[in-house]
Structures are given as structure tokens and as C-alpha cells.
Amino acid sequence: MNTVNLLGRLTRDLELKYSQSGMAHIGFTIAVNRQFQRQGEERQADFINCKAFGKTAEFISKYFRKGSMIAVEGRIQTGSYEKDGNKIYTTDVMVERCHFTGEKSNGGESGQSNQEPGFYPLDDGEADLPF
Questions:
Q1: Does residue 32 lie in a domain region?
Q2: 104: which of 20, 36, 60, 82 is 20 to 30 A away, CA to CA?
Q3: What is the CATH number of the domain that holds 47?
Q4: Is 8 left (phi over 0), alpha (psi -120 to 50) or beta?
Q5: What does pTM read for this prediction?
Q6: Is there a domain that residue 31 lies in?
């Protein structure tokens, strides 16, 4: 069984790309904190490379930014390629699903809000709502 579930923060802003056939794809890295922390040391994190395709890639690109907390589900895929005569090995998480974590955005590092256009927060003074 090849199943991965990760919760972490995006390490950089995202760039959605399209293949020649029109398939959306995105590559990104998430920083995942390790559960343990040695006394007197900073918490360590692992930086996990991820890839998403199609509607999942478009969704991630639309709703997440650098510093956003994201939960991903997928599988590990390994590969290799040649560079300057050396074989380079890769390990990526192929994201099949992603989820919001419930973390509220205050604009984040990118200065953008998760609020959709046309939706506005209600003031406490609007208690006369019909529902």
C-alpha cells in the first residue's frame, strides 16, 4: 500500500502550468514539522516535494499561497534522470486530494485573503437576519 498524508506549510508561492495537451500541473514543497524536538534545539522540519495535476492543481493554485497550511493525500513516486553524466534520483508525493486545515487567513505573507469576491463577513450589529 502506497499512501501518504501530510500536513504542512507551503514554502513558496505557486506557479500553475499547463502541458501542451492542456493538462494543469503544479509542483510545490511543503515544510512538515517533525513530531519530536530535542531539548534546547529548534523544531526540525522535513521539506517534501509534491506534484498535482488537473483540477487538484488548479484548486491548490487558486486557494493556497506561500505560508498557507495545507493537508495533502497522495502516494509516493520515485524516479530518476541524467544530469551532467550523473544519475539523479527523485522522490515526490503525487497529490490526489488536498484539504483546508481550518486555519483562518489574516492575509498571510502574500497579503491576500482567502475571502471570495462577493462574500463579506457579517458585523455583530446585523442580528436581525431572517434565518
A1: yes
A2: 36
A3: 2.40.50.140
A4: beta
A5: 0.72
A6: yes
